[in-house]
Amino acid sequence: GAIRDVPVVEDGEVVPGKVMGIHATLDHRLIDGKHAALLSRVITRVMEDPESAFGAIPSGGGVTELKEARS
User: Fold this and answer.
1) Cβ contact 36:26 at 8 Å
2) What does the alpha-carbon distance between residue 29 and residue 24 come to, in Å, rounded to a whole number?
3) What are the DSSP E strand ranges found in 1-71?
4) Separation between Cα atoms, residue 38 and residue 71, nearest integer Å
5) Phi, psi of 4 (to 5 degrees)
6) Which of 4, 14, 19, 65 is an S-S bond match for 60, by CB 3.0 to 4.6 Å?
7) Which of 49, 16, 44 is nearest to 8 (CA)?
8) What's the rounded Cα separation, in Å, for the pair 51 and 37?
9) How far apart are CA 70 and CA 29, in angstroms?
10) What percent of the chain has pLDDT over 90?
11) Whether pTM exceeds 0.70
12) Residue ranges for the chain with pLDDT beneath 70
């Protein structure tokens, strides 16, 4: 989905925030509701804080810088 601006509360104050909807279709024969919910939580955490999953992102943010930072 598209990223859109919405009001969010941070430290007791209403400030502008970004929201993006993500949709997934899962085959119930392969994954049940419990695992689908876990997958949803993991994706949300990674999207909200990618550095916790992938480490620090180089200031350039490009693929080359990322490869160099990991080697």
Assistant:
1) yes
2) 15
3) 3-10, 13-20
4) 31
5) -135, 155
6) 65
7) 16
8) 22
9) 38
10) 20
11) no
12) 58-71
